[in-house]
């Protein structure tokens, strides 16, 4: 689950999230309507994403878990014991313990913008690893984060699984990789490592099915954004006139999710009027897929040198160890 928590959210007197309203109004005013993908993850959206990770068609979670399960000894040899593991995003219930069990970390520092979710997952982790020092930090990790004093003297390993980097356009991804370097102390003479999941380019059919499953869970995940706009921003979007579309954009090597208008519609959001012609879309998410080279190029642009790379047995997903 990923949520946007309360603590770092700026709300107006009516309790409306100002950043959400700003992004939606600006995005719906563009020629190609678009809403940033981060807004897919309210409580309902986060639960739907969890459901997606169990789907037959959605291979990334299973593929990455297979690598984490099978390569523990190699991680231990390359990473060594005693590092502070800094996870960008609160740990998922499955992946993080696999890494922590393999490498004997000195501490675990989950970073997340959602305080509630952060505390919950940190508590669950502490229960699983009673001897491990866990220091959750509530922060927006898109910027440099000050780590707790307790891990000041320790070597660091950043952990960013799930290919969430793929949900960013290259410019944002590079900014994030550079912020990670700074957060992990690379600018102050430390030599941090980063273990990062990056999903791979593959057949269009496999990719499009992964983002348009037979049970319609991904469609619900996408449509939930329109419902959220109606709920939180006093919107009148006729959700029944929108359809989920997931399409491979070969030019940019990414799956794009859109909400397509099935007829001409008009609606208002926060008192502003909008219209869509039949066939017009709202672009709601990019999920970039990488080749070995494009992954390396992105990491290098972000200040990280790839050192080791693992893929699952079907060659669908990669986990890369890089050093600053
Ligand atoms: C969170 N992120 C890596 C997912 C992905 O595969 O891009 C989000 C997602 N969107 C639709 N299905 C899954």
TrEMBL record:
Any GO BP annotation: methylation
Record lineage: Bacteria, Pseudomonadati, Pseudomonadota, Alphaproteobacteria, Sphingomonadales
Keyword tags: Methyltransferase, Transferase
Enzyme class label: transferase
Name of this chain's protein: L-histidine N(Alpha)-methyltransferase
InterPro entries: EgtD, EgtD_Methyltrsf_superfamily, MeTrfase_dom, MeTrfase_EgtD-like, SAM-dependent_MTases_sf
NCBIfam families: egtD_ergothio
Protein origin, superkingdom: Bacteria
Presence of the UniProt keyword NAD in the record: no
Organism whose genome encodes this protein: Qipengyuania xiapuensis
E.C. designation(s): 2.1.1.44
């Amino acid at each position: 689950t990923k949520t946007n928590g309360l603590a770092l959210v700026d709300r107006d007197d009516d309790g409306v999230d100002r950043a959400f309203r700003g992004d939606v109004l600006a995005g719906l005013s563009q020629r190609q309507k678009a809403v940033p993908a981060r807004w897919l993850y309210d409580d309902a959206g986060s639960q739907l994403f969890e459901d997606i990770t169990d789907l037959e068609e959605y291979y990334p979670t299973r593929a990455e878990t297979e690598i984490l399960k099978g390569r523990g000894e190699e991680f231990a040899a390359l990473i060594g014991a005693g590092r502070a593991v800094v996870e960008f995003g609160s740990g998922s219930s499955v992946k993080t313990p696999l890494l922590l069990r393999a490498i004997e970390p000195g501490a675990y520092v989950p970073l997340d913008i959602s305080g509630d979710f952060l505390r919950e997952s940190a508590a669950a982790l502490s229960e699983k690893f009673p001897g491990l020092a866990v220091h959750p930090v509530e922060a927006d990790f898109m910027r440099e984060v000050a780590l707790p004093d307790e891990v000041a003297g320790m070597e660091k390993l950043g952990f960013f699984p799930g290919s969430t980097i793929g949900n960013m356009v290259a410019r944002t991804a590079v900014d994030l990789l550079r912020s990670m370097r700074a957060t992990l102390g690379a600018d102050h003479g430390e030599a941090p490592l980063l273990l990062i999941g990056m999903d791979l380019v593959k057949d269009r059919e496999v990719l499009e099915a992964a983002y348009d499953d037979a049970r319609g869970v991904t469609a619900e995940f996408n449509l939930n954004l329109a419902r959220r706009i109606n709920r939180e921003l006093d919107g009148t979007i006729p959700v029944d006139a929108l359809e989920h579309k997931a399409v491979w954009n070969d030019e940019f090597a990414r799956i794009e999710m859109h909400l397509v208008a099935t007829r001409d519609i008009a609606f208002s959001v926060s008192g502003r009027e909008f219209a869509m012609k039949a066939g017009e879309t709202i672009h709601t998410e990019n999920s970039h897929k990488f080749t070995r080279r494009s992954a390396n190029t992105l990491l290098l642009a972000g200040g990280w040198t790839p050192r080791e790379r693992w893929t699952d047995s079907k060659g669908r997903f990669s986990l890369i160890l890089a050093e600053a």
